[in-house]
Fold this sequence. Notes:
Elements: H1 2-19, E1 23-25, H2 27-35, E2 39-44, H3 50-63, E3 67-69, H4 74-80, E4 89-93
Parallel strand pairs: 2-3
Antiparallel strand pairs: 1-4, 2-4
Helix pairs in contact: 2-3
Amino acid sequence: MAKKKEINEEIKLLKAKVQEDKAIIGTDRVVKELRKKSLSKVFLSSNCPDNTKSDIQHYADLVKVPVVQLDLNNEELGVVCKKEFFISVLGISGE
Length: 95
C-alpha cells in the first residue's frame, strides 16, 4: 500500500513539473543535463531499453541523482505527461 502511494506521489510530481516546463524529455537531453549536473531526479518507463537504463544509471550515479523506475510503460508515461509521443526517459530540473 505504501508503495502505491509513493508511486502516485511520483506521478503527481511528474505532472506538475511538465506543466511548469521543468521536465526534460528524451535520453540525449537527459544525459546532457546530467553531465551539467542540472537535474534533481530522473524517471524511466518500465519498458525503457536496457542499454539506455545502464547509461542513465551510470551518469546519475556520477552526479548522485536518484533514478526512479516507474510501473508505467513509455506509452502510458507519454499520456500522463499529455504528450502525443512515447516517453522512456524524463528528467526533472533542479528543484
